[in-house]
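Hey, resending since the last one bounced:
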Amino acid sequence: MKKSFIIAIDGASSTGKSTLAKGLAKELDFVYVDSGAMYRGITLYAQQLGWLTTTHFDKEELIAHLDDIQLTFANNILLLNGKDVSIEIRTMSVSNGVSQVATISAVRAFLVAQQRTIGIKHNVVMDGRDIGTVVFPHADVKLFLTADANIRAQRRFDELKPVDPSATFDAILENITQRDHLDSTRADSPLMQATDAIAINASDYGIRALQKYVLKLVKKQMGS
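The structure tokens again:
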């Protein structure tokens, strides 16, 4: 059986990882996996059942019911137990809770196992925070995206405003800063650049220019 080709894209929130990954997957006819959406799906599930609120988080209850959660992708849309939750997982409420969920080792193990299974069966472009360091440490191509916090906050604000009118730029900037700290200091699989990853400052590129640059890198690695 031929080994699948894995492209791992890591970086902080709103650096443009998902947009880049989707474009690459479409261009290369690879499967795209948004690992961050998977963590958001679990966060939404915990909130819907009252286990995660602004004042309380019942981690044990969530861990006990992980096997009740089914996360699948259909045309880049996340299905949570068969329901399209692609809009709900992008709200500020979920953004404010996802880093808490992502610190739980049992949750990370649950999702990493699913992500690796996808990577065994398909050529994959996967983005997240620990793809090149933990999920696929032997990925064929590893990228690590950075970008100015204000640029990232504006990008997220533009995305959120149509689905969450209560969102403000200042609140989003604060959320991004907090998530950066939580993601980079958590004990299990912190956000960090793999030693063999190519670092790219996405602030220096437009979306199309970035995709064109990365596609050239990938095709070189593929020998095409």
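The longest strand covers residues 6-11.

Sorry for the duplicate.
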